[in-house]
What does this fold into?
Amino acid sequence: MKHKVLVVFGTRPEAIKMAPVVLELKRRAEFQVKVAVTAQHRQLLDQVLSLFEIVPDYDLDIMAPNQSLAQISSRALAGLDPILMREQPACVLVHGDTSTTLAAALAAFYRKVPVGHVEAGLRSGSLDFPFPEEGNRVLTSRITTWHFCPTDRARDNLLAEGIDAEKIVVTGNTVIDALSLAAGRAIPGAAQSLLAEAGNKRLVLLEVHRRESWGRPLEEICDVVSRLVDRFPELEILFSVHPNPKVRDTVEGILAGKERVRLLAPLPYDQWVQLMKSCYLIATDSGGMQEEAPALGKPVVVLRDRTERPEGLAAGTLTLAGTDGERIFQTISLLLTDSELYQKMATAPNPYGDGRASGRLAAALLYFWGEGAKPSDFVW
It folds into this structure.
């Protein structure tokens, strides 16, 4: 008997991390897979769908200019309900902590369809950081049936909240599966051109987009960029600028035309992976890049005051620089000048996965349905 699984996602990060899950489930005869996207991010989502050759069965296309969190959530919830009625899936898989995540879990809960939460158990300990992601993931956990955790620490977070251990499997993070798929491809034209133009310069990749970075923190980060290229003439900074006007307008207003600072529209994932492989270090407030970069041996400067991915701090792959401009400047400068510290971070073990998370997740679903043994947890 085939088990029908409805996979729901809406943003580029979700799509990257769910793509290998979709491909793994489709590869197995035991599953019938349906994909629904909310398109909470339209263009950025489509890049990933094209890369992994995933054609959604349902596309809600809810993205609208200046949409509020309430509008995203309500449109996603209303759009998913008739899909659930039509498909009657055995399980709905959601990922992480977006508004789409919570809306899809809630839609399934209302229809009494089991929810499988991929990348479950991450916690920062504050509902304000990151906002609204921490609230989304905490609420999703309460209505989730099966929890697919990326790490032991994420599992321990759920156990501390009273989640049944029998409903939890530590799979590793599926982003490492996606990274493995993308990293093996030939260098695409855009990435190759950027690397050729950079020549022998040391590349720093920068990506900032979270709400808590908007305004003054982002302005300070841009000021740091100017100071870094002025101090280090061998440096070139590639800044991936999120299309949200609250990010784009600030960054372009401060850094447009600055020598050795390239402002890039978000690249397709495979091209971005090639840049990550070739860069010297990465500075970001992104959660996914905290997980990806260690697999490529790249130190990560986290531009946040706290992280829900403390495994990277414990392993030594990440350093937390906060949002204060001077602290960020000193942290990056130290990594550019202290080769011993750099090598220590670059060679630290990756605590987030081994590229086999999707297989564990598929085996876990079959186990929960009484078919096969429970897979062994990922251990780093």
User: Anything to note?
Assistant: The mean pLDDT is 95. The longest strand covers residues 3-9. The chain has 16 helices and 13 strands. Residues 287 and 330 are 22 Å apart (CA to CA).
